[in-house]
Amino acid sequence: MPLVSGAEVVLGAAKDGRGVGAFNVIQLEHATALIAGAEQLGAPVILQISENAVKYHGALKPIAVATLAAAAASSVPVVVHLDHAMDRDLVTEAVQLGFTSVMYDASKLDYADNVAATTEVTNFCHDHGVFVEAEIGEVGGKDGVHAPGARTRPDEALAFAEATGVDALAVAVGSSHAMTERTAELDFALISALRDAVPVPLVLHGSSGVADADLTRAVEAGMTKVNIATHLNNVFTATVRQVLTDQPNLVDTRKYLGPARTAVATEVARLLSLLKAV
After folding, report:
1. What are phi and psi of 82, to 5 degrees?
2. Which of 106, 108, 213, 222 could covalently link to 117 via disulfide, CB atoms 3.0 to 4.6 Å apart?
3. What pTM does this model have?
4. Cα separation of 278 and 179, whole Å?
5. In whole angstroms, what is the distance from residue 51 CA to residue 36 CA?
6. Cβ 160 vs Cβ 136: under 8 Å
7. Helix (H, G, I), strand (E, B), or coil: what is residue 135?
8. Can you tell me the distance from the alpha carbon of 55 to that of 131, in angstroms, rounded to the nearest whole number?
9. Who's near 115: CB < 8 A, 6+ residues apart?
10. In sequence order, which ranges of 174-253 are alpha helices (DSSP H)?
């Protein structure tokens, strides 16, 4: 199946009241695992490459080309998304490479500068048929607004969405990045209020810290795109650790990365079911 647009997947899900799982790619094994999990359930999926992952690889193109190729070979709709890009040039490169969605993060700027920068990026991306996600404030887990106590005001979210023309908006409702325990307390009443106020789909960042039942409840309350990264890294790493513990003399990387990939695929299918992705 050809790579699909972020608009097709996210706007379609929002219209139907479904969630969309957005999972991070660090290595090729992640990309193929995420697609395999989505194929098990027959659900669309978003593969995210973050600016931090680009820094890890030293460049965007190698991991991007591999991920785009894996997406093109999938039997389910796949969106390849640039996540938390603060580098404007990185957005341009991603669009040129064929990404169909970007999240531009100007949240460290003051409000007026954030609006101006985000509007410029949105106009550029829309000229190239690319879906745009943004956020108002800094992100929790990164000393910012998505820390557990932070909350996005519906009136401010509406004003930001209207001023920038973005296609989706990340909001602060109680989750935080990089949580290794699933103890986040989401504000479901706020999610519903934001859904009613904001004319574009809502995005939940830091969803690794959200319990199973609350992932489902968040979608039912009005969330559409749900980002999960650390939780799947835990699954991947725990599997590698267990295989190497059981077979301490193992040196063939395929023998431990393969089981980790399978474990992530199984968990992705389970998470997509919780998100009501089909």
Report:
1. -90, 120
2. 106
3. 0.92
4. 27
5. 24
6. yes
7. strand
8. 23
9. 160, 163, 164
10. 188-197, 212-221, 230-246
Query: What region does 212 belong to: left with phi over 0, alpha with psi -120 to 50, or beta?
Result: alpha
Which tens digits make up the pLDDT trace of 117-161? 999 999 999 999 999 999 886 434 444 445 555 778 899 999 999
Nearest to 80 by CA among 54, 101, 65, 104: 101
Question: What is the number of residues in the chain?
Answer: 278
Q: How far apart are CA 193 and CA 195, in angstroms?
A: 5
83 given a catalytic annotation:
yes
Q: What pLDDT, in 10s, does the model give residues 35-81?
A: 999 999 999 999 999 999 999 999 999 999 999 999 999 999 999 99
Find, among 116, 111, 109, 222, the residue nearest to 156 by Cα.
Answer: 111
Please report where in the chains the tokens 């097709």 appear, as a residue: 8
Task: Report whether 45 contacts 37 (CB < 8 A).
Answer: yes
Q: Please give the Cα distance from 66 to 31 (Å, whole number).
A: 8
Which residue is catalytic, options 16, 83, 127, 246?
83
Cβ partners under 8 Å of residue 256, min gap 6: 239, 240, 243, 244, 247, 250
Q: CA 58, CA 48: separation in Å to the nearest integer?
A: 17
